[in-house]
Amino acid sequence: MNLKSTTFWSAIFTVIRMLSGIISIKVVAYIIGPAGVAYVGQFQNFLTITNSSSNMGIGQGTIKYLAEHKEEKEAYAKILSTSFILTILSSIVISILILIFHERLSVYLFHKKELSFVLIVLAFSITIYSSGQILMHALNGFQEIKKLITARILTSILGLISTIILVILGGVEGALLALIISQIIGFGILIYYAKSSTWFSKDNFLKHWDSDSFKKLSHFSLMTFVSVILLNVRQIYLRDYIIVQLSPEAAGYWQAIWKISELYLTVITFSLSVYYLPKLSSIKEKKALQQEIIKGYKFLIPIVLVLSISIFVTRDLIIYILFTPEFSEVRDLFFYQLIGDIFKIASWILSFLMVAKAMTKTFIITEVIFISLFAILSLVGVQHYDLIGMTYAFAITYFLYFLTMLFLFKDILLTSRH
């Protein structure tokens, strides 16, 4: 599939996911309020950390090498099997650690022990979810995009139904449990769609352990641990900082604007992950890379600009539709958040090259610098400008990140196209 086709299917997924997200956010916001929304955000970030840890952060590497060797059965079987074995072993370790420290984790995340039972439920579900992640990465790597998107659409719809039921029945506890249930539902759906693929067989998941594949994947493991885990630890820390310095409600407002960005950018970020990573991984020549990147800018940036402007103009209506009157203060957070979103996508189009070409050292250095920079600027911003300071920090960080990407890949961008 090409970028336009992938974006079209991504758009279908995005519309359904956005509608599911809108309904879910509305129900959650109405029943548990801004403070509850903040706690849900804390748990979402923690889930991302545990999910990345449970597959050793090898997801992007699995996609890359399956895309490169999708016509070579012996080679892709080694990648699949090594990935699966690593994932199972790692998820068992993570589950045990959560069971041991579930009360302490509950106090850190939610400031109360009473929600620790949610972490126990999570511990027993991690192996199931992480196995589903391997299937998702495989569908992506083999570029079976229609199956992947269909599976994710069904997961969104069924996840929405479970969220509504559990939030109505259990409030905050129900909202947290719904996040776990959605992951389990996703595993079942992925199994259904993956089982008809030629690569789906027991031997391809259990027959091989390949040390060379492990070495290749370990580079991506390190990149993911630095990026995903450090990023989500930062989000948890900053949200907790807002709760302490301002209020749980203020943390809910920040979570709200962050969620809005996630919703409308899904079509772009999903296209980048399912199309760009496999595509860039397979391109060897600088001219071809330049053409693909320029095509990405010409196609994606206008979409982001139109979406951002539309969202800013209709921000009051969006708050009314997504949330409740309690979230009216969110309207002041849109402008700089949307500017940051534009620079975020502009920089990501280039930064995917670091993952696709396994530029481990460069990737880690830039991630550590800019994740740390956002945290520092956010703390300063909150101290001097209240909650809106978080959006100042976001816009400044991604502007500087975009300039850094332009500098790092200037040789590719300036390659003669003639």
TrEMBL record:
GO terms for cellular component: plasma membrane. InterPro entries: Poly_Biosynth_Transport (IPR050833), WzxE (IPR044550). Keywords: Cell membrane, Membrane, Transmembrane, Transmembrane helix. The keyword tRNA processing does not apply. The chain crosses the membrane at residues 6-32, 79-101, 116-136, 148-169, 175-194, 217-237, 257-278, 299-323, 335-356, 363-382, 388-409. GO terms for biological process: enterobacterial common antigen biosynthetic process. It is a multi-pass membrane protein. It is found in: Cell membrane. CDD domains: MATE_like_10. Its main location: membrane. This is Multidrug transporter MatE. It comes from uncultured Aureispira sp.
